[in-house]
Specification:
Main location: membrane
Transmembrane segments: 7-29, 49-72
GO molecular function: prostaglandin D receptor activity
Radius of gyration: 23 Å
Number of helices: 3
Helix content: 55-70%
Number of strands: 0
Structural class: mainly alpha
Strand content: under 5%
Shape: elongated
Region (Disordered): 82-113
InterPro entries: Prostanoid_rcpt (IPR008365)
Distance between the termini: 41 Å
Length: 113
């Protein structure tokens, strides 16, 4: 399970890097093959590239294993309780799309007769 979490983190950071660096690569090729002197587009491409260095640490912090798992649990619980209130059933049966660690179970009895 931990390997999958690291793979998701790696995939997100790769997609983020690709999206942020693609405008600069496109502008570089356009400048190499055509006489295009659009400074505003060049600045926009550089701004996209700088967003990557700002957002990468936040993606790493948010999608760490422990933080990501607690986030998934909270989302599944809220979705399960919302579905239960709409359908009138128990939330334990509605969490079929959540990972096994975040499914709700009935609370243990208190032991008071």
């Amino acid at each position: 399970m931990e390997e999958l979490d690291h793979l998701v983190l790696l995939g997100l950071m790769t997609v983020l890097f690709t999206v942020c660096s693609l405008p600069l690569i496109i502008r570089a090729y356009m400048g190499a093959f055509a006489a295009d002197f659009n400074e505003n587009a060049d600045l926009s491409a550089l701004r996209f590239l700088s967003v990557n260095s700002i957002v990468d640490p936040w993606v790493f912090i948010i999608f760490r294993t422990s933080v990501f798992r607690s986030f998934v649990r909270r989302v599944c619980r809220r979705l399960g309780s919302r579905r239960a209130s709409l359908k009138g059933s128990s939330p334990a049966g509605d969490s079929q799309f959540c990972p096994p660690g975040c499914r709700r179970t009935a609370p243990p009895p208190l032991g008071i007769p």
